[in-house]
Amino acid sequence: MSTCGNYTLGEDCPCRASVAEKRTMCRAMSHWQALRRAQARPEELVPLDDRELSPHVYLLSLAPRLDESRFVYCGAVLAELVGRDPTGQTVKSALPTHMAEQMVEFLKGAVQYQQPLADAGSQLGGDGSEILYRNVMMPMIGPGGRVDQVFGAFSYRSVDCRL
Fold first, then answer.
1. Total-model pTM
2. Using an 8 Å Cβ cutoff, are 66 and 90 in contact?
């Protein structure tokens, strides 16, 4: 069995990638599994006691129109990228348009399939740097068996690609 921070990644761990490469995403997935097993609500557990993971996580309260879903909690990493703390704001008002549109598309899948969805990619930063990111969205099923919140984790790094 391998470990990822304080978490033991057993056979039931959904993260099959290299622990070193995707440590934040694996830790988030392990935390999500623990939430589900305990049938706990994530708002009871954020901000997290895990100082290494906490800056990366966010919690969305879903709205009928997914672009109107609100950030209930947002760690420092995503807030730093968008330039402000989006807590209390909707996805469409808190994030740049292209980022909001992409997040909504992944939210649709996480809600429809009631399974985590991960995204990795790149985008051009305002300063000409390339931003490499990873995002995982994990649905939280509320009363009535309906996904009403999404627990997520986001990480990124900038690569200077200017000539």
1. 0.81
2. no
For the record, the structure tokens of 73 come out as 């909690």
- Start-to-end CA distance of the chain, whole Å, equals 44
Spatial distance between the Cα atoms of 91 and 45, rounded to a whole number of angstroms: 21
Distances (CA, A) of 66 to 21, 31, 84, 94, 137: 30, 24, 21, 13, 13
CATH for the stretch 48-159: 3.30.450.20
Find the length of the chain.
163
Which residues lie below 8 Å from residue 108, measured CB to CB, with a gap of 6+?
Answer: 66
Q: Which two tokens stand for residue 25?
A: 């995403």
pLDDT tens for 49-77 read 778 888 999 999 999 999 999 999 999 99
The token pair at 106 is 């992944």
